[in-house]
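Changelog excerpt

This revision adds worked examples to the README so contributors can see how folded entries look when concatenated. The first example is reproduced verbatim below.
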Amino acid sequence: MTILSKGGFMRLAVRIAEWAGWLTIVDRRLLDSYLSHKRVEIDQRLAKKFDDARFIRSQLCFIRPWCVEVACKDGIVAVRNSSDEKRATVFFSIDEWRVFINGVKKGDFDFLEDEPEKPQQSAPV
């Protein structure tokens, strides 16, 4: 959990510096590059943490070869594509995940049901 909040504090500090006019365009580009590298480093660390995690998927996935898989470990939720485990895994805090799930239960994403279903293929990495 601490890993994720450090990035959040860094982004907040950058936004305050921007607002105060302390950053030039060059500074901003350097910071963006730094934060991008930090995000990759954090994702790699989290990915290693989930190497031995048990990912689960919906019981309805037996119909399709592709599904969303989810694992939870130490307050972090990992989400990946079941048809291509080599693609990037996305990480959320448990609080972010709970907000998302509550939105799903409330129907916030029901508009997606109106989309015609197309066979999906794994995108090249």
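The second example, added in the same revision:
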Amino acid sequence: MNTVRILFLAAFAFLMFACATADGDKGTTGTPISTSEEKTAVVNLSEEQKATFQSALENAKAAYAKVDKVGYAWRDTKEMIDKAEEAVKAGDFDKAMKLIAKANKQAEGAYAQFEREKNAGPRE
């Protein structure tokens, strides 16, 4: 019986540690996201594609910054934004747009989660 309790407590401690977030003032990642002023250099794309991607990128970065500020950014969102920028630099517009759309959707979902949970507490 004691072995079961020890295993349960160890698993619980691991889960609590894994779910912990960084300092709220720095955001969950602790690294700032680049601003919209830093334009992504793109190759082999039409002007329309460049403008479309740049607009989507700015929207995703703004949504991510908003949710990161309140400490609710999801784990993969920043990485998706970075991979989208890499894809567009390589000229893969379709992949870049899919990644940036997914990152934006994640950021919006994370903020919706924050809104639902910000006043959560014990039931009376």
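Reviewer comment on example two: The first helix runs from residue 2 to 19. The helical segments are 2-19, 47-69, 77-89, 93-117.
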